[in-house]
Amino acid sequence: MSPVIRCKAAVAWEPNKPLVMEEIEVAPPQAHEVRIKIVATALCQTDLQHLLGNMGKDCFPVVLGHEAAGVVESVGHAVTDLQPGDKVIPLFISQCRECRFCKSPKTNQCEKAWYGVDPLSVPESRFTCKGKKVLQFTGTSTFSEYTVMNQMAVAKIDPAAPLDKVCLLGCGICTGYGAAVNTAKVEPGSTCAVFGLGAVGLAAVMGCKAAGAKRIIAVDVNPEKFAKAEVFGATDFVNPKDHSGPISQVLSEMTDGGVDFSLECVGNVGVMRSALESCIQGWGVSVMVGWTNTEDFSARPVQLIGGRTWKGSAFGGFKGRDAVPQMVKAYLDKKIKVDEFITHNLTLDQVNDAIELMKRGKCIRTVMTVSPQ
Ligand SMILES: NC(=O)c1ccc[n+]([C@@H]2O[C@H](COP(=O)([O-])OP(=O)(O)OC[C@H]3O[C@@H](n4cnc5c(N)ncnc54)[C@H](O)[C@@H]3O)[C@@H](O)[C@H]2O)c1
Ligand SMILES: [Zn+2]
Ligand SMILES: [Zn+2]
User: Enoyl reductase (ER) domain: which residues (predicted)?
Assistant: First the structure.
């Protein structure tokens, strides 16, 4: 069996505190598991929500990070599809290929996914630091030079893929793009609105465009995001702060009654309601993509009775082991954009700077180098 590895990781010891670079021990992979050398990882808003979002002491210490790419270092017993040297992307939603959800084409919600078991817990961690167990966030934990994951949550990708770019396909890009294409099922010639123009929202804009939308209205309270949104195909730009009335009324006036599709990519229940109310009655579809699990959402029933549909989307509805390699190929074939999402490049020891950039709305994605490729 491969020995324990001692390596560097950014440990979140407590909520709301800076991460600390520590030496951790990473256990060897057990049956069905692989140990991955992480080459590059990015920071996603969901990592920040765990750190800053009233998660409670039980959820710490933890190694955050779930948007990454790396190379298999060693494999445990009964690993069939992967071998040392394979380039991989860790998945925060597993695809076991055996459960009733994996067997259904209707969903990507694998029964073995970390949150299927218990929303607060994660699979048994393979990390220790200073004699303490350290949790693995979403079963991934990519703010570490090495991590251990079950093979059912690992996508094997094209060896030609540059890991410092395709790491973004581990969360944000697939999430937004798939929310438009798979969940909303945006139609050619339609009018869409995307609320929130971080990586998830910009990828949703890209998905709307790929699906043939004729008009894509980009909505954000930070006008610095509009230039990027245009790169991905947005045609109109709305800052809610420029209007005194509800944003749904503004969009309704712009579109003769509302948009065909709206996507909420902020993680705010008020914005979720606005996104629904911005849809046209009769057939409008609104998709919640932004992540929050601390508040209830609300709307008037007549919104749905009047023919609107309200849906949610995790990881863009993609079954990761099948879809992520295809998205990597789409990038290599220049059919989707990835490089354009990267605004900053840092190293893992600068992770607190990456956190500050995201908190202040100054980045789309910061890619951090973890180990040499
Ligand atoms: N469903 C999933 O599977 C999934 C996966 C990844 C991320 N997420 C969630 O998606 C959301 C976006 O993630 P991100 O990494 O792109 O975040 P981000 O912080 O980079 O982007 C959020 C954007 O929303 C804008 N915004 C804030 N308040 C707004 C408002 N009232 N109206 C309009 N825009 C507003 C911000 O200015 C920012 O540009 C987060 O909630 C994240 O947790 C969900
Ligand atoms: Zn499954
Ligand atoms: Zn994410």
Answer: 14-368
Residues 46 and 128 grouped into a single domain: yes
Q: What is the residue with the minimal CA distance to atom 3 of ligand 1?
A: 314
Q: What are phi and psi of 229, to 5 degrees?
A: -60, -35
Same domain, 149 and 233: no
Pocket of ligand 1 (CB under 6 A): 44-46, 49, 171-172, 175, 195-201, 219-222, 225, 240, 265-268, 271, 289-291, 313-315, 358, 361
Helix (H, G, I), strand (E, B) or coil at 287: strand
Amino acid of residue 103: K
Distance CA 70, CA 140 (A): 12
pLDDT in tens, 19-29: 999 999 999 99
**Same-domain pairing of 202 and 254:** yes
pTM over 0.85: yes
pLDDT, tens only, 102-125: 999 999 999 987 665 454 445 689
Residues 60 and 154 in one domain: yes
What would you report as the CA-atom Rg of the chain, rounded to the nearest whole angstrom? 20
Domain that holds residue 360: 5-170+338-369
**161 and 303 fall within a common domain:** no
